[in-house]
Amino acid sequence: MTIEEIIDIQMHAFNNRSIEEMMPLYTDDVKIYNFSDHQLTVDGKENCEEMFSKLFEQSPNLYAEIIKTIFFDTKAIVHEYVSGRNGDDIKKEQVVIFEIQNQKISRMDIMRS
């Protein structure tokens, strides 16, 4: 699977709030960081699944709209609008840097405006 295919599947699963489609895309030791302060917010696949499950439960109208994606080496830099997070329908801009290892997402760094 190419990095482009991994990101396409991840975005489709996110917009459909599908844990079943999303979690096979992540490594067991996936890490998610807040870019602004480098704080580790998710450590491991189990923690990742809990975080996304809770987000999907609380966000029935969750939707990400990609503005632009840059693929560079083992990274995908996705500039997007996200709406519906935790019931907030306002579009919020963010950038997510996905790092791919062995055809799975091993790290995400998230920048929110």
Q: Overview of this structure, please?
A:
This protein has 113 residues and is α+β, with helices and mostly antiparallel strands. The chain is 27% helix and 46% strand. The protein is built from 3 helices and 6 strands. The protein has helices at 3-15, 19-22, 45-58, and strands spanning 26-34, 39-43, 63-72, 75-83, 92-101, 104-112. The protein has a 6-stranded mixed β-sheet with strand order 2-1-6-5-4-3. A hairpin with a 2-residue loop joins strand 5 and strand 6 (104-112). The longest helix is centred in the middle third of the chain and has 14 residues, at 45-58. The protein starts with a helix and ends with a strand. The model has no long low-confidence stretch (mean pLDDT 96).
Quick overview:
The chain is of the alpha+beta class.
Globally, the shape reads: globular
Compressed to H and E, one letter per element, the order equals HHEEHEEEE
| Number of distinct helices | 3
> Uncertain segments of ≥5 residues (pLDDT<50)?
none
Report the span from N to C terminus. Answer: 31 Å
Radius of gyration: 13 Å
Structural class: alpha+beta
Determine the fraction of residues in helical runs and give it as a percent range.
25-40%
Q: Name the assembly state.
A: single chain
Residues in β-strands, percent? over 45%
Say how many strands there are. 6
What does the main sheet amount to?
A: 6 strands, mixed
Mean pLDDT: 96
Strand numbers in spatial order across the main sheet: 2-1-6-5-4-3
